[in-house]
Each structure stands twice: as structure tokens, then as C-alpha cells.
Give the backbone structure.
Amino acid sequence: MKPDIVRRYAHNPILTKAEVPYPVETVHNAAVVRHENEYIMLFRSHLRTGRSIIGLARSPDGFHFTCDPEPFLTPAGTEFSVEDPRVTFLEGEYLIAYSVYSADGVQIALAKTSNFRQVDRFALITEADYRNVVIFPEKFDGLYARLDRPHSEIAPWSVWISYSPDLRFWGESQLIMRPVPYHWDEMKIGPGAPPIKTEQGWLSIYHGVFRTMDGSVYRLGVALHDLRNPARIVGVSDSWILQPEDPWEISGYVHNVVFTCGAVAESDGTVKIYWGGADTVMCVGEANISDLVALCLDHARPAK
Ligand code: BMA
């Protein structure tokens, strides 16, 4: 049998609500980055109100995580819920882009930290009806770049790119990748983990959704963006790289979901991909970066 392109860790799930020292109902959709000698995980948890907060867990090896005693980020002021953080290391700081729900809809907020102890809530960087913002770890011609996913009544929910001189004001927005009809990602797509630099381009792990008679299935796929012009997609893999298969991915708070907000590239050419299983637990798997790049180049579907 052909081995899976993403090799699931044998002891998944790696973090569940049982290991969180304050009351939560789920642990999912986490960003993971390396900071000093640790892997830092910022995970989303539902409370019994149905709203979400963001917790922090640490690990020496990327597989065994221990939670901090208190949540890391909770809704501020009139916010209802903070969700699905993505973390990018840039210019000596960690940028945390996360969804904020309020009476005005869902927007993306940006916070900054250098140590994962103090956190500076920097700005709201979108208008309403945006989710899934990932910031590139480098600037392009002096501008910051991000992938995002506006919600729209008249177009399928697609991946866009925007640029900013200061991380606060964003523009030059353009649609760069769409769902493909009658394909595993046909209903909607969204950026997942912040892009990883490879010799062949920026590797982006995204999620795609397919509607079935039994609800939606969330899977993960890969796309490769031009190194110097990230608005140009070099290739998008025709096939998914991960789908719900383990029991804790098939059944939980929302069934049939694998959803990523973070991946860590290692010096040996592998990448640890982290995903929420069924919006309930955190899982990890490993892949060879070269296999993911090859999938984008050799088995491509149209980007839009
Ligand atoms: C999306 C977001 C994600 C979630 C997914 C599956 O719309 O809400 O946070 O993981 O649905 O429920």
C-alpha cells in the first residue's frame, strides 16, 4: 500500500480538554511555532457558552504539550469570541492573526508578542466577514503580505492576497485561488498555515470543503506561490493531503473536520502539520516538504 503523504503521529490526539487546567469543552485549530527551545501552541477552546478563547501549551519536541495555567487571549471589551490563531515570526516578533466575533460580524485582529507572556493587541486589520488570515514571514518589495478569505454572497469563498506598508492598512487585494467545481474543495477554500519558504516557492497548506448529504467535509490541500511574487500561484495539488479518518476526526463537536492553523518546518526537510480533529482535539502528522512541493508541481489543478 502506498504510504500516506502525511504520516499521522501514532499517539494522536496530542492535546485534549482533559489536559487543560481550566474549564473548556474543546482544544482545536491551533497555531504552533518554535520559540527559544520550545514549541509554542496557541489553541482555540470552546467554553460552555459556545464562545471561544485561546490557550497556550508548550512542548520540548512538538508532540508532548503542557498547558499554561491560564488562557492566553480572551475576548476583550465587546468581543464575543476569539478563534483560529495563526502565528508568523517576522522582524523579531510573533504576529498573531485571529478571528474576532462581535455584534458587527467576524473580523481579523492582529496581536504581537516577543515572548508569549505579554501580548499587544495591535489592530483590527479587516472589515467584517473575513476569516483565515495568514501573514507571510517575509516582506515583498518593502510590503507585508497576507493571504485571506473574505465571505461573499456572489462568488465562491476563495483565497485572496493583500499587502500593507505597516501591518495596519492593507490593500492591493486580489483573488488568487478559487474552489474548483466537482472537486474535493468545491464549496470553499481558506488559508491554513502561514506559508513555508522552499526553493521552489512558498508552500501553503490550505483547507477545502466539500458538501455531502451528511454535511460538509473539511480536508487539507497544498499550493505553491512564486517566491518573489506570492500573488502568482505556481501550482495547486489536484488531490488533498489529509482527510478525516481517525475516529476523533470523524466524530466530535463538528464531525468530519481536519483544520490547520499551523505547521513547523524542520531542518531535516520534514514539516510537522498540526490540525484540529472534529473541532474537538489537536493532532499532528509529519510530511516531507519535497513531497508536498512535488504534488503541487506534478499533479496540479487550475488555481482559478
Ligand atoms: C469553519 C471555522 C473553523 C472550523 C470549521 C469546521 O467555518 O469555524 O474554525 O474548524 O468551520 O467547523
